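Dear colleague,

Following up on yesterday's call, I've attached the two folding results inline so they're easy to grep. Please treat them as preliminary; we haven't cross-checked anything against experimental data yet. The first protein's sequence and structure tokens come first.
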Amino acid sequence: MHKSQLSLDRSEAVRLVRGLFPSFTESEVTAVESTGTVNYLYRAGTRTAVRFPMHGGDAHEVRAVLLAEHAAMLEFAAASTVPSPLPVAIGDPGRDYPLPWSVQTWIEGEIATPGSVASSTSFALDVAALIGSLRQADTKGRSFSGEGRGGELTAHDGWIAHCLQRSEGLLPVDRLRRAWGSFRSLPRLGDDVMCHKDLIPGNVILRDGRLAGILDTGGFGPADPALDLVAAWHMLDFPRRETLRTSLAIGDLEWRRGAAWAYQQAIGLVWYYAESNPTMSALGRSTLIRLLTDPILGL
């Protein structure tokens, strides 16, 4: 999926996992089909997940990132309304794989899709409860790091322009350009709150149509309060978006900033993953359709 992506075959993954946990047999270490774009995912036994970074240069820097992720995972778990992975260990590089890697607990359930629970009021209320709980977590005096989504919308102008250029022939670019023009100038209100920062379907676990777990919690940290509202356009139809909004008592400006962050995340998915990860490309497309057809946003 990425030009700098490292390769990892199953034999090396098995060798690394069994080196750290000799009690696992070879057959208990299995690759997991995933739409993830950052890590190779394996399962070791029934209770453990193993994530091998797909790219990264310096092993010491990657280890520092993993340690920070493990700390964030513990913070998230303490604030979450549903189970999330807990850190278990960090593995060392191997003969044919040059980076440290992360071992976490496994969360059982079904991965959400953009449409699987789109019309579920119960699910919308579950997500609202999660976001509300995360917002109450202590920032401990921290503020947005300045990297990625969650700061100023205008910081992403260059990326949006690049994505729009690459999306010619794939998406209604003129209309999307006008949409970003209306989004980018939305003013920021309110202090940073704690956010998951990536509430997409692939990070959402379902059981019997209800929210049962959240994955990829290592980025938990302070950001724009509107950031986690992206879940509304990634996973919910219009009536259920209104359910979530009402439950959280979100005002018009913050709601529109949430839509802007959903746009910023989705606009790069369609063209970038068109061939290498069709599921992620389809997510971007479905989110943009929801944004463009949202009767409240009026895009």
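Below is the second protein, in the same order (sequence, then structure):
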Amino acid sequence: MKKLVLFSLVALLSCTLSAQIETPQPSTSAKIWQTVGLTEVTVDYSRPSMRGRTIFGDLVPFDKLWRTGANAYTKISFDKDVTIADNDVKAGTYSIFTKPGKENWEVFFYTDTQGGGTPRDWDDAKVVAKITVPVYKMEMPVETFTITIDDVASNGANLGFIWENTYVGVPFGVHTDAEVVKSIEKVMSGPSAGDYYASAVYYASEGKDINKAKEWMDKAMSMTETPRFWQLRQQSLIQAKSGDKKGAIATAKKSLAGAEEAGNADYIKMNKDSLKEWGAL
């Protein structure tokens, strides 16, 4: 019996020790990140190595769907909309599948992003972009599968796949010019109502130039078609701080009416308390 207990303890200790041993994965995980213009692009993938094997046409058969890496799906993420082969691709995360050929590769960007290997039930409706690109042969072999973002420009880049003696590049475009033009037009047209409002509230709350805060708040309200009761509340407080009690009372009454219509008890009470303090109730 004692021998049996001792054997069980040794076996348990062996299992515990073995569970603590960490070994590297045959295909290590990798993540690359690149800003292209004003768009952030990230790629998550696993990197198998040649290890003396013939890759394309053997380990990776020609003209068969490949997961483009190892382990889980290879994924690419765009934080803004992009274009791939004249396809508009919305911001988001997509998996990448390929059909390597001797002369060309077909590359697919697919909406399903969870899984390993290749999808059991391929659905063409989930392909957001498909492109055929040429194969370029390299003189120096590359041992480990590598994905790159090359030829980075303000309006796009190439998504590169490198392994063995093969390089394939997938061009994609970003909308930098449209974003910059929109930003320029916004700045050149002057501050928005929201800009004036935020600046006025900040100046008033931090005890800065109250007359400047009032000027900005009046400008914000004049640019706002239908000021809401919480905006009017801030305007009334600024008016009161600047010495315009008459204007503060008139604005607070508007804020009170809007709060009563919205059923907002907090703003009803705050406005009534202010009106009473200013001698209007």
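For the second protein, one point worth flagging: Residues 2-19 form the longest helix (18 residues).

Best wishes,
A.L.
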